[in-house]
Amino acid sequence: MTRKTTTQKLLFISLALVIMSFSVNVLNAQSLLNNDSAFKAGAPNSGRVWGYVFGDYAYKGHSDSLKRGGSNQYSGIPTSRTTFQFRRIYLGYDYNISKKVSTELLLAAEDNFPAGNPPSSAAASGDELLNNKLSFYIKLADIRIKNIWKGTDFLFGQIGTPAFPAISEKVWSYRSIERTVADIRRTPSYDMGASLQGTFDPATKNFGYNVMMANGSSAKPEGDNFKWFYADVYAYAAHKQLVFDLYTDYERLNWTSSWHHARSMVKGFIAYNSAGDDKSMNPGKGFTIGVEGFVNSLKNDLVATKIAGGNDTLTNSASALSFYIHGDLVPDKLRFFARLDMYNPMSKIDNNTYSKYAGNTGNYNDNSYSGAANTATGDQTYKQTFMTLGLDWKPTARVHIMPNIWYNSYNSQMVSNKDHDMVYRITFFFAFGKNYDNGGF
To answer: In Å, how far from its chain's centre is CA 124?
Structure first.
């Protein structure tokens, strides 16, 4: 046998081994995409890759003249602006280390600034790089130890909080259209800490709880010595067609001898879903109606400027109420949705005593994209009314196309300057690795 022939055979064997290895990896990767049921069953060494994407083609029909509404994605966008935009891209992997221990990792790329009106490169932050391109960040990374006692799991790491992701967001079912009313005000949906998640009745799972202690800074490192405490209890009734949920949280923000500054939310939620059964609610089918509201007490948060001179530091409370409805027009093909939110950032308005108000908690003050310099009065008191309505067409499994109207109005409690933002959108959503068509949980 010549050296050339030997070399050719070695190359052939090496190539065959590479092809076999690649084929096995492809098969393994394919199994990761298709073993959702194995993962749910808790089979050891089973995993699943999953993800979803949503975005829009949007047309700005009208712009608020004072560019208010810093917590929405359309502040400061001029009238007649059009844009194609991704608003969220998820890529996740869930894995069962054993039947008792599982872990999850979720990468997310989400909009951080108003669509079509990006900041300068010097101001870029959040999910945008310095060149204004969207970037993934680590949203979830945690380990779950199941049944540390019957019906209760312990979680550690970057975890979904009890605030709304587990129940109210799922029943609303249209995060691709808008955040829940507490999420709009940036109550954390995920945080770095430890959590206990459990049920009081493991056999039926009609009554449960979720408590958590965390940094309060979501994906960012801790920046102070104060922790955010979360607690949630819930109950299902009428064969899980009704759900009741009560949530509270607390965090110190500043705590010195001269300034005790803290915030605490109480939130309630009730919903009915006609497609629920003894196993789960199913808000992607049938008819669903829900109401969610909160009061956030902001201790010593509001600096009020006196007409006669000087300032007072006041305890403020911000409140919101959200109503929504969605249901089938053509089962498994066409649905409708509609929602109305009312938000009041300040309860301590006294225009006979004070000329200006400034909140210290960022997500409950003006937080305008354009800044106070472009707000004629420096006014942070304006109430907001949000409305959306639209259709949800599902051309095939896990794909949704949703024409909708997005509207947010602003009405000052100090002066007369009511105005609004109006956006016309075609929203798209598609998913893989998990079934997001029926919203069941």
So the answer is: 21
